[in-house]
Known about the structure:
Distance between the termini: 114 Å
Helix content: 40-55%
Strand content: 5-15%
Number of strands: 10
Amino acid sequence: MHKSFNKSARLYLSKMQSQILPISISISNPFFPNRTPPSSIMPASAAAHAGAVFLNMEDGDGDDLSHSSIEDGKKFETTPFLPRVSSYDSVNSTSMASTVTSSVSYQQRRRRAASDSNLSDFPGGRRRFFCHNAGRADGDSFFITRVGSKLWARIRSGYSIITGFLALQCYAILIMPGVLQVAYYYYFSNQVRRDIVFGDQPRNKLDIYLPKDNGKNDTPKPVIAFITGGAWVIGYKAWGSLLGRHLSGTDVIVACIDYRNFPKATISEMVKDASRGISFVCNNISEYGGDPNRIYLMGQSAGAHIAACALVEQAIIECDATQSTTWSVSQIKAYLGLSGGYNLYNLAEHLHTRGPYKSLFYSIMGGEESLRKYSPEISVQDPNNKKAVSLLPPIILFHGTADYSIPADCSKTFVDTLQRVGAKAELMLYEGKTHTDVFVQDPMRGDDKLFDDLVAIVYEGDEEALAKQVSAPSRRRLVPEFMLKLAAKISPF
């Protein structure tokens, strides 16, 4: 009878449709001995619906995923709990095998559903997941391209810096005969007063080049307050020693003003240093035999830009009655700008192709937002600065037509702008001259057109002084011609 009962039970169970999932059972689960089984049952239709919701079926792609889970459920429903051949002969053994099979299968389906739901978190399910990965691959490719382009830009920048440095070294070697002679004059001549302190900041010093009589005669001498160039990075007051050496021989006092360079300072600090130096010259040059009523402000390259900024800024300050000043633009007889740039927006675009690159240029200027403030060409066009423009002294700009470091158009547009707003401005061009020809090579070959023009401007109306300059001996050559021509070809400027 026992065997008959077992046979009947197996027949009944094999024919029974699994409409419920036996979650709760009185027999303990041997696989999970410590887990308390839940006490509820879940119909298959409810399980399928829950699976569909769990799998987040929002579009057509998700239907395939949920349909697969439902089909798996149907297969589970039509499969008997007990296989046709069982090793268990008792009802309890049969029930345990049924429970284990259903529990393990149910857990597997839950794990599969949870895994699939992770994929379905991406819109579109499994297919969208792979599309998303493809998009990510495109993003990675774009990222690699960006990194590669930046790396190439750095390599190119480094190459330009290295080649520029080597060219500068070769240039310095070729003009070294003249540099040594000027350096000897700078350090050992009794006509040079070096390192005169004019402020409390580092490098707030200036050099003064005196005439041969050291300014001891009774006639005050005209003065040129000079600010050297150097791309805002390597400017130094000693770079003006060649100019000081030549002009001091014509009874003109030259004061070369130093200033902090980048990265120790940005353009705002450079302009402040220049303004302090100009103030010292205006208030103290008489002690060195200079005429405080005949002071000419001059700058070369970056120094021309700094000097122009200081001059325009001072004029704007003087229009504000609430601000005190230590010097006045009325003390400046004229502004003399050599090879300068006065519109930083245009200059940034040009320098980006030659160096420094825009990122470095913006850092030197204290950020892109500072370009407008420190562009004299733009400042003089501001209607609010109309009164300040009227205070400016005559402005004379010099530029070589073959200057590729700072094109001559920079001076042309500034002069045109000044004339349009009512300021006195004039442009003097040197045909075929480069950025360094006018200031370095020509003075070293003894044929300095800029020198002659400066003397003519300083002594304008003084026939006796002009006649004296005409009768003066010609200037001596400092460097052989072939070396100067070769230096001009390899010059990085």
